[in-house]
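Key result, reporting period 2: structure in, sequence out.
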């Protein structure tokens, strides 16, 4: 049956038929999204394929419901396979944005009552809005599944505010690692330790910072994002408070205390980026994910630049005779305590649990069987409000609903096992982009460690001048963060219009641009220092290093979130571990 077979009820409905042809672009079924079921295929699938070939791109779900009895529809729906998982086309039916009388009448007549009720109740709270829940642009199968899963917007909070908050929290990790470095000479003097032992504390922190993201990623995929963030922030507050009182609580075994506290600090700091990237995946649709991933990385990318500036200001105040130098280096860790306390308050008050395998789209109505609120019993009302409180406070150990619809839309949380972890490690594409990002971080940290020394030795900069020298690469990080995601999403939308199939790997084009830009900046930086070129040229090269890093990082992380699905936290933690390892090795060599 084609659209030509639809007959108007009277001549006045001919115009409505033309309008309804536009409506065919709603509730589409992507040609490559349907595969033959393992059960015996029937003529219904062939009819879909034939119509897809005739129409080239799109065909309406409702088009195939005309003239079918409810029994025929349900039998034919069960024979379809969507993205290698059995799905019902009722999930693809949605309340349309167009409301012309003919289209509305045909939809009402053609869909059986059972499917109508499923269509309305499948997505909580979204049925109250006239929103198209289907895709109107073709994608590859992986992206279709992601879009289908992500297109339901959270209904109980503003995800833009949440992204700002998690970007702030994610900055705590790199800030803890880099604010410590300028204070090393002062710590050597006050704690009476050698330079080698102080360098060992840096290497120990970076080693822990490399390994433990692998643990945090698995935990946040299983137990949720918020509870892991809370635990990490509390642990970070404890570690920084102990470092601020180093040598005061106990004056024995100072070196052992320093190493122990730095290990705890590194363990805590390594969880923030993994949880933050996983929350971005939970919140943001695919067609906007690169943009918001860029906003998120503004925090952790700018932290290594801000840290030396803050440390320089605090330490310079102590050297200028305004106070005791011993007190001032302790303030470096007290500032971290204050910032982590702010992050803890933000997490408790603002951030809800977002892990989709546990809370779905964040609507507690799942827990009461998708019933209307005005029909609930007292026990169901208590369950509704108790579930809403759990979503806000976190600590959910199992999905809020065991219904088939919930499990159909959201995969179960992965079990913590070596097998599941190896499954992610065996994704060669994840490893490939992780290694490339690790090399970029190696270049960037080699640049960060050497810049202050080169400005002092070759160009005669003082403490405040060296701190201000990080403003230029910091500007590159900010500009790259704000532009990379927007440009990536813009080009993806353009390519979608031009091509019938767009694969997630096209995101990696922008990673290559970032890699080339960063490498060119690094080569320029080395040459300019070797031949003592003007400091302006050095700053220009540092700008390219910063902007290239953000383009590469943003694109690769967005790509990982597309292909890792329910184990985004694990995939991002692998990427973080490799890039932190690269940063540790390069900073040690430099």
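The corresponding designed sequence is given below.
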């Amino acid at each position: 049956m084609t659209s030509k077979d639809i007959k108007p009820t009277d001549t006045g409905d001919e115009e409505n038929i033309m309008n309804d042809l536009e409506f065919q672009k709603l509730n589409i079924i992507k040609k490559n999204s349907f595969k033959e079921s393992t059960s015996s295929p029937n003529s219904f699938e062939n009819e879909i394929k034939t119509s897809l070939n005739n129409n080239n791109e799109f065909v309406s779900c409702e088009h195939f419901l005309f003239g079918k009895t409810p029994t025929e529809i349900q039998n034919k729906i069960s024979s379809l396979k969507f993205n290698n998982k059995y799905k019902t086309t009722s999930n693809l039916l949605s309340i349309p944005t167009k409301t012309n009388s003919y289209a509305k009448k045909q939809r009402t007549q053609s869909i059986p009552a059972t499917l109508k009720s499923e269509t309305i109740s499948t997505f909580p709270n979204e049925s109250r809005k006239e929103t198209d829940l289907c895709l109107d642009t073709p994608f590859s199968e992986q992206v279709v599944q992601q879009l289908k899963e992500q297109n339901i917007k959270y209904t109980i909070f503003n995800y833009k505010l949440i992204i700002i908050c998690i970007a702030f929290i994610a900055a705590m990790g790199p800030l803890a690692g880099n604010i410590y470095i300028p204070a090393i000479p002062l710590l050597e003097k006050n704690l009476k330790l050698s330079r080698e032992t102080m360098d060992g504390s840096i290497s120990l922190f970076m080693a822990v910072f490399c390994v433990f993201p692998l643990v945090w990623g698995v935990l946040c995929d299983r137990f949720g994002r918020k509870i892991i963030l809370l635990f990490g922030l509390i642990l970070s507050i404890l570690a920084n408070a102990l470092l601020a009182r180093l040598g005061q609580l106990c004056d024995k075994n100072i070196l052992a205390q320093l190493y122990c506290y730095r290990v705890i600090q590194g363990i805590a700091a390594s969880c923030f980026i993994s949880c933050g990237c996983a929350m971005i995946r939970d919140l943001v649709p695919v067609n906007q994910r690169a943009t918001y991933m860029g906003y998120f990385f503004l925090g952790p990318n700018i932290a290594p630049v801000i840290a030396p500036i803050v440390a320089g200001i605090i330490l310079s105040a102590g050297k200028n005779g305004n106070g005791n130098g011993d007190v001032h280096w302790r303030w470096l860790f007290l500032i971290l305590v204050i910032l982590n306390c702010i992050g803890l308050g933000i997490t408790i008050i603002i951030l809800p649990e977002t892990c989709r395998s546990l809370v779905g789209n964040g609507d507690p109505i799942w827990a009461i069987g998708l019933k209307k609120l005005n029909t609930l019993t007292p026990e169901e009302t208590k369950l509704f409000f108790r579930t809403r409180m759990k979503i806000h406070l976190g600590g959910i150990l199992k999905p809020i609903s065991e219904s088939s619809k919930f499990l159909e839309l959201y995969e179960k949380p992965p079990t913590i096992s070596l097998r599941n972890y190896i499954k992610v490690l065996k994704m060669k594409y994840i490893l490939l982009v992780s290694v490339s990002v690790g090399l970029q971080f190696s270049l960037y940290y080699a640049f960060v460690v050497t810049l202050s020394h080169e400005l002092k030795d070759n160009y005669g900069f003082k403490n405040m001048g060296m701190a201000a020298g990080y403003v230029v690469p910091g500007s590159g990080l900010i500009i790259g963060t704000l532009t990379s995601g927007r440009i990536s999403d813009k080009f993806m939308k353009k390519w979608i219009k031009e091509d019938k199939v767009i694969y997630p790997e096209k995101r990696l084009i922008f990673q290559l641009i970032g890699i080339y830009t960063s490498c060119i900046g690094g080569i320029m930086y080395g040459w300019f220092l070797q031949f003592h070129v003007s400091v302006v040229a050095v700053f220009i090269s540092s700008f390219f290093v910063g902007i290239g890093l953000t383009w590469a990082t943003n694109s690769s992380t967005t790509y990982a979130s597309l292909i890792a699905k329910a184990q985004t936290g694990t995939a991002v933690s692998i990427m973080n571990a490799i890039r932190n390892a690269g940063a540790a090795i390069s900073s040690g060599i430099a």
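Residues 3-136 form one domain. Residues 241 and 489 are 42 Å apart (CA to CA). This case is discussed further under Risks and Mitigation.
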